[in-house]
Amino acid sequence: MWRRLGTGLGLLLLVGAGVGLWITQADPLPDDALAGLEGDPESGARIFAAAGCASCHIAEDGPADVLSGGKRFATDFGTFVAPNISSDPVAGVGSWDDIALANAILRGVSPDGQQYYPVFPYGAYNKMRDQDVIDLISYMRTLPASDIASQPHDIAFPFSIRRLNGGWKTFAMVDDWTLQDPASDEIAQGRYLVEALGHCAECHTPRNAIGGLDTAAWMTGAPFPAGEGRVPGITPSKLDWSVADIAEYLRSGFTPDFDSAGGEMAAVVRNTAKLTDADRQAIASYLKALPN
């Protein structure tokens, strides 16, 4: 009996290990995912601004177009350090081909098949249009190179095991739109800018125990990851600004009370100020269309 029990437990362990390996494996794009697409750097500049790439990847007080990394992000899971994603072929991503960059952006997978941590918001970028991805890549290739080496994350075991991020993707990543059935094309465009490119929910939505976004409390505010203060809610019941007020704030950084954006939002406004008036109007319309 004990032998049969031991054999059964061994089989269960093997099955469990196999399921774990399957769940946590990388899931890259097909090699031909971008076939036939050509990038437009001018369009890519707008995508770059909307996606907030510079906000994380420029060095503290560094030039706005040098993506040398180094910015640190304190979280409950450890401190993450933004990598160099400049066009340098050694320190940055200049040697990566388009599909490798697209895998990082859309799937959170490195060229050698490692899982990226979701502090890189591929959980939002996975909704990007393929043309926007290739336009973004083509624009990034025009930016200056930096030979500053990327710094390692400061993360304790077991979170230091990158493969576990595959399990996080399975159980915590949001694949679908949160606002369903937008009432207009403008709101649909705002949804794309907010939920995909702008990844606004990464800061404005609370998280569950494994770090996934709590979509039932979408945009209702969340604790600062560093543990001090709170990111405000921006649903209609928590932000009573008009569409025009929100659009103006995204352009100039000034609130209806003539206060100005500060902290991390100052960097966000530097990006949204580069968008079109129609983009900012769409973002504002989307926010006003959210449930209270």
From TrEMBL:
<dbReference type="InterPro" id="IPR051459">
    <property type="entry name" value="Cytochrome_c-type_DH"/>
</dbReference>
<keyword id="KW-0408">Iron</keyword>
<keyword id="KW-0479">Metal-binding</keyword>
<dbReference type="InterPro" id="IPR036909">
    <property type="entry name" value="Cyt_c-like_dom_sf"/>
</dbReference>
<feature type="domain" description="Cytochrome c">
    <location>
        <begin position="185"/>
        <end position="291"/>
    </location>
</feature>
<dbReference type="Pfam" id="PF00034">
    <property type="entry name" value="Cytochrom_C"/>
</dbReference>
<dbReference type="GO" id="GO:0046872">
    <property type="term" value="F:metal ion binding"/>
</dbReference>
<dbReference type="GO" id="GO:0009055">
    <property type="term" value="F:electron transfer activity"/>
</dbReference>
<dbReference type="GO" id="GO:0020037">
    <property type="term" value="F:heme binding"/>
</dbReference>
<dbReference type="InterPro" id="IPR009056">
    <property type="entry name" value="Cyt_c-like_dom"/>
</dbReference>
<protein>
    <submittedName>
        <fullName>Cytochrome c, mono-and diheme variants</fullName>
    </submittedName>
</protein>
<keyword id="KW-0349">Heme</keyword>
<feature type="domain" description="Cytochrome c">
    <location>
        <begin position="39"/>
        <end position="144"/>
    </location>
</feature>
